[in-house]
Design brief:
The chain is α+β, with helices and mostly antiparallel strands and 224 residues long. The chain contains three helices and eleven strands. Strands 1, 2, 3, 4, 5, 6, 7, 8, 9, 10 and 11 form an eleven-stranded antiparallel sheet that branches. The two termini are 14 Å apart.
């Protein structure tokens, strides 16, 4: 028992467990407004989360601009041209919505940011009409993640050309983060729907620490 306890503690404090900081989940659909691939990727992403919270923008008014108090923090943009769009009020027009009628319409290359009210470890969303901008931009979307220690990491996706299609993009992180910022798409407008976030779950390090403490307590009790 003593050997097992010592081994666990050595692993915990020697950096013997390595985890990637950010893992991405991404897929897109090639035809107009299809969601087969993107919905499958969303399901894969959500299955990993504990008690996810989704903002679908249905509680906001048509034309409402940021900052918006969303389900898990504050959403804001660098331009007032970004706003909540109600597809029911514009029949026969682009864009479409995932659920059920409202989206957040995002113009050009300004930055959309979400400041979370508490640290998170997962974030994902649908985006529509990405990749058909007038400018040639690679990558199409960039996400900058700000961790709780103020360090940052950028991840990106390249969709290739396409009109009016949906994609799903999610990330999970070993380290908790407090903000995400998203930009790109070569000057064209696109839109967001069903933005999902999840709070931290116990990490492998935490679970092993608890296990090591339990083994220590057990071995001490056994010696007595």
């Amino acid at each position: 028992m003593k050997q097992v306890t010592v081994l666990l503690i050595a692993v915990l404090f020697s950096g013997g467990i390595a985890e990637a900081t950010v893992t991405q989940f991404y897929d897109s659909d090639s035809s107009s407004y299809a969601t087969t691939n993107s919905a499958a990727k969303k399901t894969e992403f959500l299955l990993l989360l504990d008690d996810p919270i989704t903002e679908d923008f249905e509680n906001f008014s048509e034309g409402q601009v940021g900052p918006l108090s969303v389900a898990y923090g504050i959403l804001d943009t660098s331009l007032s041209a970004d706003y909540v769009f109600d597809t029911d009020q514009h029949p026969g027009e682009d864009p479409a919505a995932i659920s059920p009628t409202k989206i957040f319409y995002h113009h050009q290359q300004d930055v959309i940011s979400i400041d979370f009210s508490s640290p998170q470890k997962a974030f994902g969303f649908y985006a529509g009409d990405v990749g058909d901008g007038a400018l040639s931009v690679d990558p199409d979307l960039v996400m900058e993640i700000t961790f709780v220690d103020d360090s940052t990491e950028q991840v990106f996706i390249t969709t290739g050309p396409g009109e009016q299609r949906w994609l799903y993009w999610g990330i999970t992180s070993h380290e908790a983060f407090k903000k995400v910022s998203i930009w790109g798409d070569g000057g064209d407008a696109f839109w967001f729907d069903n933005m999902t976030s999840a709070v931290p779950e116990p990490s492998t390090i935490t679970l092993l620490s608890i296990g090591a403490l339990g083994l220590l307590a057990f071995s001490r009790r056994k010696r007595r």
